[in-house]
Design brief:
This protein is an alpha/beta fold. The chain is built from 9 helices and 14 strands.
C-alpha cells in the first residue's frame, strides 16, 4: 500500500530511500549468466556519458565483478573522511566495484548479510555527487543482491537482458516477474547476441535462434528495447578495457549500442514522468 506516513525521530528509514543528487537509478539484470549483461551495462553507461549525461556505474555483480577489466582500470578508490568513498572516474564515468577493492583472483565467499552490507555501502557511502543516471549491473538471477538493492533505494527502472535462446528466455521471464513482484518498473527487454554476420558471405546467422526476447516482451506487456548482434569486436573491446562505444556513433560496432541507449533514456524519462511524487512505499 502507499501512505504519506511521517518518519518518527530515531526510527530507521521507512522503505527505500532516494540517493541525494541522483536523478534516476536503472538496474541491468538477467535471469542467467552468459548473456553479456555486464558488457551491455558498461556500454550503456559509457554511451550515456558520451551523450552528455552525468552517469555512474555501480558494479553490484559481487561474485563476478568484471567492470574494472572492461573499463581497463585497476586503481583503488580513495577513502575520504567519515568513511566516505570516492568513486573512480574512467572515460568520464563514475564507477565503483568490489573488483577494485578485492583485485586479483581471490573469490568473495559471502552470505546474504555481507552482500546486503556492501550494497548499502556502495549506495550510501560513495560520493556519487550529481548524476543524471546511475546504472547498476546486477548479478544474474533473482537472489540477495537484487533484493538488497530494491530494499535500499527506489529504482527508477530495470532492464532485462537475454539471448534469444529458450534456455535464456526461461530465466529472463523469472527476472521480469521478480521486478514486477518488487514493484519495479521495467524499462524493457534487450535481445543480446541476436544474430551473427558472417565476415565472408555477410549473411546473418541466427546462432541462438532469433526474436525470442521480442516475443517474450510482447507476452509480458513490456517494451522491447532492441537487438544487439553477436559482434566479436564488442567482445574484444571489452576484454581490452576499451568498450565499443568509445569509438563513437560512427563506428559500425557501436551504432546499435547508442540506439539502444537513446531508447532506454526515452523509456526512463517516460517512467519518471508518470511516477507518483512523494509517496512512501510500504511493503
Amino acid at each position: 500500500m502507499s501512505a504519506h506516513t511521517p518518519q518518527r525521530p530515531g526510527q530507521p528509514p521507512l522503505g527505500p530511500q532516494p540517493l541525494p543528487g541522483v536523478n534516476a537509478i536503472v538496474a541491468v539484470g538477467s535471469g542467467k549468466g552468459g548473456v553479456a549483461k555486464t558488457t551491455l551495462a558498461v556500454n550503456l553507461a559509457l554511451a550515456m556519458a558520451k551523450l552528455g549525461h552525468k552517469t555512474g556505474l555501480l558494479d553490484a555483480d559481487v561474485y563476478g565483478p568484471n567492470v574494472p577489466l572492461m573499463l581497463g582500470t585497476s586503481a583503488q578508490p580513495r577513502v575520504l573522511g567519515e568513511n566516505r568513498i570516492e568513486p573512480l572516474t574512467v572515460h568520464g564515468l563514475k564507477t565503483i566495484s568490489v573488483g577494485l577493492l578485492n583485485p586479483g583472483d581471490k573469490p568473495l565467499i559471502w552470505r546474504g548479510p555481507m552482500l546486503h552490507s556492501i550494497i548499502r555501502q556502495f549506495l550510501g557511502q560513495v560520493e556519487w555527487g550529481q548524476l543524471d543516471y546511475l546504472i547498476v549491473d546486477l548479478p544474474p538471477g533473482t537472489g540477495d543482491v537484487a533484493l538488497s538493492l530494491i530494499q535500499t533505494v527506489p529504482l527508477t527502472a530495470a532492464v532485462v537482458v537475454s539471448t534469444p535462446s529458450d534456455v535464456s528466455l526461461q530465466d529472463a521471464r523469472k527476472a521480469i516477474e521478480m521486478f514486477r513482484q518488487m514493484k519495479v518498473d521495467i524499462a524493457g527487454v534487450v535481445e543480446n547476441m541476436s544474430y551473427f554476420v558472417c565476415p565472408h558471405c555477410h549473411s546473418e546467422i541466427d546462432i541462438f535462434s532469433r526474436g525470442g526476447a521480442e516475443k517474450t516482451a510482447r507476452q509480458f506487456g513490456v517494451d522491447f528495447l532492441g537487438s544487439i548482434q553477436l559482434d566479436p569486436e564488442i567482445r574484444k573491446s571489452g576484454d581490452e578495457g576499451k568498450p565499443a562505444v568509445l569509438e563513437g556513433e560512427s563506428s559500425p560496432h557501436a551504432k546499435s549500442l547508442f540506439d539502444l541507449t537513446r531508447r532506454l533514456i526515452q523509456r526512463v524519462e517516460q517512467i519518471k514522468s508518470t511516477a507518483p511524487e512523494g509517496v512512501v512505499q510500504i511493503q
